[in-house]
Amino acid sequence: MFSGSMVALATPMYADGSLDWDSLHNLVEWHIEQGTRALVAVGTTGESATLDVNEHLEVIRRVVDQVAGRVPVIAGTGANSTQEAIELTETASKCGADACLLVTPYYNKPTQEGLYQHYKAIAKAVAIPQILYNVPGRTAVDMLPETVRRLAAIGNIVGIKEATGDLDRARELLEILPRDFAVYSGDDATALELMLAGGHGDISVTANVAPAAVAQMCEAALGGDSGTARAIDERIRILHKVLFVESNPIPVKWALREMGRVDGGIRLPLTSLSPEHHATVREALRSAGIL
């Protein structure tokens, strides 16, 4: 089982939107050095929605090759087309990814039965471990706990990234799912409480800029040391909020540029962080001890 701090890795780009492979290499090494327990390549924060298929798969290949087994690599392979999701998942498996993260189909708004059949088809087609990803604020579809419970009976569906930020929902999942089925937070602001309630880790945006702190907080929470975990989380809590002043990954990519780690490019229809938020994000980085 994957556990702890799993960074939802940003995909570095130049100002013209082309991919910055050198910065990606440096980010991967930095995360491993800082204690990040797994890298999630080409998820929402990695701008999967605007990478073409070749770029998407090349990011996965490069991250897998560079990591070389030092930590798990989880590849984002979700799509609103079941066949496309199967093809992405097959290729990620061939690239050597340790697992795949599959967002609920977006825009076409499937029923709960449609969600079940979608994930069942992908799991049947590709043997790699698969993690469900529920983020209704972005997809306009909410995968309900009963659907997750049905999917948990499929052997290679091993967990869920629950990104609603609803702790009652998270607790319900923890109550009804098998003990060996992982429940991960996809919401940094509530990740600590989810882990203290029995969750297994945090697929984190904040870890992009504060990898050591998020890793230490997760380790403490998973080890039952709530005092240490809360103290660490309090130091970085402002980041959980400020990194969402505009749509993710706009603020986190701007923050990484301020830290000198990326060039700061982002692809349309996303644009760079609005000037009125620059001071807010910069001050949050200072408050967290990053700048």
Automatic annotation (TrEMBL):
The active site is at Y133, K161. One of its GO terms (molecular function) is 4-hydroxy-tetrahydrodipicolinate synthase activity. The record marks A49, N80, E84, Y106 as: L-lysine inhibitor binding. Keywords: Amino-acid biosynthesis, Cytoplasm, Diaminopimelate biosynthesis, Lyase, Lysine biosynthesis, Schiff base. It is found in: Cytoplasm. Its main location: cytoplasm. SUPFAM superfamilies: Aldolase. Pyruvate binds at T45, I203. The keyword Lyase applies. It is an enzyme of class 4 (lyase). Homotetramer; dimer of dimers. This is 4-hydroxy-tetrahydrodipicolinate synthase.
